[in-house]
């Protein structure tokens, strides 16, 4: 029988982290005693760069999780392959949130690739809580870029960072 999984990764770009992401992290923490949020560099996300730098996204995620009572969750930046990071930190699984069928198709492809690279790395999917099923970082960024109120979608530190980032528009 394989060893039980005691450490999981919750990877993503987190540009920026939203309450939907926080919900997935909280649920991963219920499943497993050790959770690491892995913030991907994602240089070419959707053909453009990210709104926030890697260091900013790591900092925003750390503060958001702390604000939400998840101080025992580690947040780390990473570049390269997720399977390499999992080996490096000793994580036995990846936890991803699913909002819709399109998320499932993309995440299934990623899980299949990860399996081919490391058959011991499990993929765990959690369904989005209904109140976050529509929520994505790109929607939050778009609303914020037009001066809209995103405070119900993100923690106060992220709300402030978005206002600051888009204030000149």
TrEMBL record:
Pathway(s) the chain acts in: Cofactor biosynthesis; coenzyme A biosynthesis; CoA from (R)-pantothenate: step 4/5
Chain coiled-coil ranges: none
Residue ranges of every copy of the Cytidyltransferase-like domain listed in the record: 9-142
Catalytic reaction equation(s): (R)-4'-phosphopantetheine + ATP + H(+) = 3'-dephospho-CoA + diphosphate
EC number(s) reported in the record: 2.7.7.3
Quaternary structure note: Homohexamer.
Free-text function comment from the UniProt entry: Reversibly transfers an adenylyl group from ATP to 4'-phosphopantetheine, yielding dephospho-CoA (dPCoA) and pyrophosphate.
Name under which the protein is recorded: Phosphopantetheine adenylyltransferase
Gene: coaD
């Amino acid at each position: 029988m394989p060893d039980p999984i005691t450490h999981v990764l919750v990877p993503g770009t987190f540009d920026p982290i939203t309450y939907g992401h926080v919900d997935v992290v909280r649920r991963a923490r219920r499943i497993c005693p050790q959770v690491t949020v892995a913030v991907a560099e994602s240089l070419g996300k959707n053909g453009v760069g990210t709104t926030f730098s890697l260091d900013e996204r790591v900092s925003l995620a750390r503060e958001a999780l702390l604000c939400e009572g998840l101080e025992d969750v580690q947040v780390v930046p990473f570049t390269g392959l997720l399977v390499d990071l999992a080996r490096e930190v000793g994580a036995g699984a990846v936890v991803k949130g699913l909002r819709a069928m399109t998320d499932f198709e993309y995440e299934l492809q990623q899980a299949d690739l990860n399996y081919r690279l490391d058959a011991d790395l499990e993929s765990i999917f959690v369904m989005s809580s209904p109140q976050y099923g529509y929520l994505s970082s790109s929607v939050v960024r778009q609303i914020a870029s037009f001066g809209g109120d995103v405070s119900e979608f993100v923690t106060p530190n992220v709300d402030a960072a978005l206002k600051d980032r888009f204030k000149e528009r």
